């Protein structure tokens, strides 16, 4: 069952997700910092550290949004980072951030669909994705595309929300995620559905072992999960052999 942002819309999930992020783009970064109490910055740092020993020269950041993970990837001293997303408004804000930081020579943001990546086979040393996979309309196809454009021995690193299991984190997280976050999100973003969709999409996402199985089915070898902040988020790391 696909969870979509706008229940009454006749658009498919991909189109609805693009519309949602276009709607909230101007307030997205602020809400990220505010609603996560800034911990999302720490999560991105941990995600990029997974590639430190790999020394990737060419990096693809899928569902790049406003480019935060692409910018964090600069710490790896790559030759080039390409970020793709289906939301033009998010990309536009990301381009302004990159220009302000004088990173245009290294980071390029462009429209790109995870199900049909506009790149040749075996193009990238590493692929990253933060808080994007649960929004994919066709998860299997998107993972297959990641595998296709990744070079042999290349690594994929995925950051995504997960569902904590330990008491009392599970209970506190559930209350915050289902009641506090949607209320604040609606008030600030002015999009009634976007921050209701967020907990719904997290609930439906096959985190943990099921997602590791998706990675294996997509061709990746030795996928592992690393829990962050008592299981509120997870980093998934896998390799193409």
Describe the protein's topology:
Blueprint: H1 13-35, H2 39-49, E1 58-62, H3 68-72, E2 80-85, H4 88-100, E3 107-111, E4 124-130, H5 139-149, E5 150-161, H6 169-189, H7 194-204, H8 209-217, E6 221-228, E7 233-239
Parallel strand pairs: 1-2, 1-4, 2-3, 4-5
Antiparallel strand pairs: 5-7, 6-7
Helix pairs in contact: 1-4, 1-6, 6-7
Give an account of the 3D structure.
- The protein is of the alpha/beta class.
- The chain has helices spanning 13-35, 39-49, 68-72, 88-100, 139-149, 169-189, 194-204, 209-217, and strands spanning 58-62, 80-85, 107-111, 124-130, 150-161, 221-228, 233-239.
- Strands 3-2-1-4-5-7-6 form a 7-stranded mixed beta sheet, with helices on both faces.
- Helix 1 packs across helix 4 and helix 6 (169-189) runs antiparallel to helix 7.
- The longest helix is centred in the N-terminal third of the chain and has 23 residues, at 13-35.
- It is globular.
Describe what is shown at a glance.
This protein has 241 residues and is an alpha/beta fold.
Give the % helix.
40-55%
Characterize the overall form.
Answer: globular
Cα(first) to Cα(last) distance is: 32 Å
Number of helices: 8
Structural class: alpha/beta
Estimate the mean pLDDT confidence: 95
Evaluate the radius of gyration. Answer: 17 Å
Low-confidence stretches: none
Oligomeric form:
single chain
Query: How much of the residues is beta strand, in percent?
Result: 15-25%
Order of helix and strand elements from N to C terminus: HHEHEHEEHEHHHEE
Major pleated sheet: 7 strands, mixed
Q: Could you tell me the number of beta strands? A: 7
Q: Widest sheet: strand order?
A: 3-2-1-4-5-7-6
